Inverse folding.
């Protein structure tokens, strides 16, 4: 199944459209499809150990993961507001069920919370889309851009309804990518949901949100329209808040899933830096867009790898508390090594992908004059060292609570090795992948 | 003139019933008021010449959704009391008032473009053409079909108990 998906996404090199241009196969769509297939595949591999906890419905579990992956691929490939909304709902509904899959108290709470807040976010997004449709009279992103430039606005302030529409769309998508102030659901849902689903949520669901965010804002509201500067600044402020709140809150966490939840919030912050630079730059500015893609790829591998190791270790110890990871280097050396590598990448140390990704995205932002944001982001990275290094230190230097080895299945080990290879490859040979990302965004079909 | 009066009546009915749904303590009454809200929205659709939409609204929302909510309440014990006081009541009120003001301002102060075309007499055929015809919105329709599959699957997973029995009550 996974390999079929891989073959399919590698298949075409040209821009093709279907359904009257509603569905498009261009560089970014291809990139995101590839990313979703890889992350769904890794999640399925790492679930092999975990699904034994479900007495029933193991088949439905995989079906739901694949259905939500379908939704995400559609999100990345559609360029029409209605289709985007319906594919987003397809993704979300599968994920709501997955979050509540364990059916114990915490998992049910996670599912319910995710469902209620997600429904509100969808409504907000739909209202924003309705306002944009009201102004422009079309749901096609390219046509929206034409109508807006025909209106020849002086700025977003001239048409409050359009401004409101843009804000509401940002709010709706902000829930999906877990940016502040729409991040409240993250820690509880991440803690309660089954761990593979948490990994999936933190990676694929976030990437899908960014796919839509980039396509909507680049195609419909992007440069050369002048309103780009307004939402670019809006997003810059949002990203500052997001990374600061995520990093500061992560320090106090004792549960590893909650900690990685907050860390995923702060990574959403770093990613928004790139999207904000996209709004402030010109249409020819490739860097800001390709840096977001590169960052997403490196974040995907690192986060999935970390969660894969957590799945194996928690399965043995039966707890997600950071203190129970003490001395894991002696009980599970390979898992610990992989997990440390992934945490270092999330932190952004050489020789991992995280460093290159951060440098690349901050570089793009500096070129658009967002120096203040980059300084804040670097300070934030330093703060994040505190909680990542604490876990690494506990794992290597702590005293183990028992001498028992931690077992792990072949599928799970394969997932971990693939993730670590991804992290290292992107870190050691970044040039190849950066060129790939640049080629991908140049094919942005408008 | 008649249309204007009807609009304002329906709009006020809409807002009052919506507020009553949210603020009321009795969940059973809230469900009944929800049905009333759906009816008045259907009335608004008729004023907008959207006959098909109004019919669908009555069929699905009043006929299915509201009845389902009522059934769910009747099958569940001890929820009719509901609606505990919440410490976020005041901030929520302030925030929603601000949001309402911002929305009303932005809608009122925007120069909307109004289509010069006369509205269609019956919209059903045109809607069908738009959804399934050449150059129409067939993609979202198909994605929605997959969406229904996913939600049916999800509902079964969540409702069925681990030992294979259906959860009751």
């Amino acid at each position: 199944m996974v390999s079929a998906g891989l073959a399919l996404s590698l298949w075409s090199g040209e821009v093709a459209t279907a359904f009257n241009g509603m569905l498009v196969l261009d560089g970014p769509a291809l990139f995101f499809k590839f990313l979703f297939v890889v992350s769904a595949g890794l999640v399925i591999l790492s679930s092999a150990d975990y699904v034994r906890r479900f007495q029933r419905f193991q088949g439905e579990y995989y079906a739901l993961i694949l259905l939500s992956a379908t939704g995400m691929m559609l999100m990345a490939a559609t360029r029409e507001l209605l289709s985007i909304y319906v594919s987003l709902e397809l993704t979300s509904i599968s994920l709501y069920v997955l979050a509540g899959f364990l059916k114990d108290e915490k998992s049910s709470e996670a599912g319910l919370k995710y469902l209620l807040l997600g429904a509100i976010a969808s409504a907000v997004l739909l209202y924003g889309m309705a306002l944009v449709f009201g102004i422009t009279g079309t749901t096609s992103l390219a046509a929206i851009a034409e109508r807006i430039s025909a209106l020849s606005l002086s700025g977003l302030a001239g048409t409050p309804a359009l401004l409101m529409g843009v804000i509401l769309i940002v709010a709706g998508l902000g829930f999906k990518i877990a940016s502040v102030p729409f991040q409240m659901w993250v820690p509880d849902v991440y803690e309660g949901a089954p761990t593979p689903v948490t990994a999936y949520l933190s990676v694929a669901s976030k990437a899908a949100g960014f796919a839509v965010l980039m396509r909507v804002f680049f195609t419909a509201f992007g440069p050369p329209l002048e309103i780009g500067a307004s939402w670019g600044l809006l997003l810059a402020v949002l990203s500052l808040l997001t990374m600061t709140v995520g990093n500061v809150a992560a320090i106090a966490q004792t549960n590893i899933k909650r900690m990685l939840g907050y860390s995923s919030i702060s990574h959403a912050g770093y990613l928004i830096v790139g999207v904000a630079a996209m709004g402030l730059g010109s249409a020819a500015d490739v860097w800001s867009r390709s840096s977001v893609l590169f960052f997403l790829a490196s974040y995907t591998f690192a986060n999935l790898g970390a969660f894969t190791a957590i799945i194996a270790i928690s399965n043995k110890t039966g707890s997600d508390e950071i203190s129970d990871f003490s001395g894991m280097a002696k009980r599970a050396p390979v898992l610990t090594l992989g997990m440390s590598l992934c945490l270092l990448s999330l932190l952004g140390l050489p020789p991992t992908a995280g460093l290159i990704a951060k440098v690349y995205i901050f570089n793009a932002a500096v070129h658009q004059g967002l120096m203040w944001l980059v300084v804040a982001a670097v300070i934030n990275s330093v703060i994040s060292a505190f909680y990542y290094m604490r876990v690494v230190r506990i794992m290597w230097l702590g005293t183990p609570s028992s001498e028992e080895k931690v077992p792990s299945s072949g599928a799970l080990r394969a997932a971990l090795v693939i993730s670590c290879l991804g992290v290292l490859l992107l870190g050691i040979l970044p040039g190849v992948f950066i060129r790939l990302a640049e080629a991908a965004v140049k094919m942005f079909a408008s | 003139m008649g249309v204007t009066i009807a609009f304002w009546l329906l709009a006020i009915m809409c807002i009052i019933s919506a507020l009553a749904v949210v603020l009321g303590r009795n969940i059973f009454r809230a469900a009944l008021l929800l049905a009333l809200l759906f009816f008045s929205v259907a009335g608004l659709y008729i004023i907008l010449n959207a006959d098909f939409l109004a019919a669908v609204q009555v069929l699905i929302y009043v006929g299915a959704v509201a009845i389902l909510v009522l059934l769910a309440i009747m099958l569940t014990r001890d929820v009719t009391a509901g609606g505990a006081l919440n410490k976020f009541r005041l901030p929520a009120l302030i925030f929603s008032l601000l949001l309402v003001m911002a929305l009303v301002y932005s809608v009122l102060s925007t120069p909307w473009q109004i289509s010069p075309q006369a509205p269609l007499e019956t919209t059903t055929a045109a809607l069908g053409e738009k959804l399934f015809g050449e150059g129409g919105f067939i993609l979202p329709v198909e994605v929605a079909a997959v969406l229904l599959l996913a939600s049916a699957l999800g509902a079964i997973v969540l409702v069925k108990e681990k030992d294979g029995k259906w959860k009751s009550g």
